[in-house]
Amino acid sequence: MQNKSNYYLKLGNKYLGLNNVELAIKNYLLALNENSENPLIYHNLGVCYLLKNDSKSALENFKKCIENGFETEETYYYYLKALFDSGNYDECLKIKVNEKFFIDMSLIKIKAAMKINKYNYAKNIVETLKMSGFSSQELNLMERIINSKNI
């Protein structure tokens, strides 16, 4: 029943807004029992699991979210984050960086590339960020590490 599902979804959103992740998850799961086709429920569950540092559960929910047609820039950012946090570094490199989360997604992809010794790939992203005018201590440190690998 969609009305019940929406009720639990809204309740989950309220609990998430109050930083009560456990009650948010409980209500999202109730919403999912009523309507397993709603991709927003999977998205919100994924966010909750990221907040709990449960990257495996987060990843599963973001995959289902995307499979059900919910392909927002935010969803892909969180999906990339869950991939990285769960050690799926090769998969991270396959995700397209979007405009809204360009810097954050690029930094995650640099780290993923470095984890699997793809320093040329990482160097290209660093150069793209620098050409876009971005600079930070973190980026400079990553660039020094990459350059120390003599590529």
TrEMBL record:
<feature type="repeat" description="TPR">
    <location>
        <begin position="5"/>
        <end position="38"/>
    </location>
</feature>
<protein>
    <recommendedName>
        <fullName>Tetratricopeptide repeat protein</fullName>
    </recommendedName>
</protein>
<keyword id="KW-0802">TPR repeat</keyword>
<dbReference type="InterPro" id="IPR011990">
    <property type="entry name" value="TPR-like_helical_dom_sf"/>
</dbReference>
<dbReference type="Pfam" id="PF13181">
    <property type="entry name" value="TPR_8"/>
</dbReference>
<dbReference type="InterPro" id="IPR019734">
    <property type="entry name" value="TPR_rpt"/>
</dbReference>
